[in-house]
Amino acid sequence: MAKASLSYYRGRWPEEVIPKGCPEWLYYEVDRQADIVLRYVEVFPGGSSKRNSIALEEQWGAPCFSLVGDSFVQTIEQGVLQLISQDTFEALWEQGVNTPFWEVAKPK
After folding, report:
1. Is residue 21 part of a domain?
2. Rounded mean pLDDT of 4-13?
3. Which of 16, 17, 57, 62 could serve as 105's disulfide partner, Cβ 3.0–4.6 Å?
4. Residue 14 domain-assigned?
């Protein structure tokens, strides 16, 4: 994957009132050419953050092709996300706590 195809986005929780346990902001690293979300960071009210990546999901051996099931390019085209810099994303990534969501093939 060429680095040139990577883009970074942020979006606020879509509802005015953020439900308990939900992030206020979501940040994404996207390979637009392949339509794949490679990494994301969730920032919660109060400042804590969680992060996930394809590499985290694949750590137990099961493949993960994207962190979202639908076309992310279509989401981008809806105009609900803002383009951000890689530096902004990386700074947030460094603050996040590894939190795989799917945990496919995780030993029990």
Report:
1. yes
2. 91
3. 62
4. yes
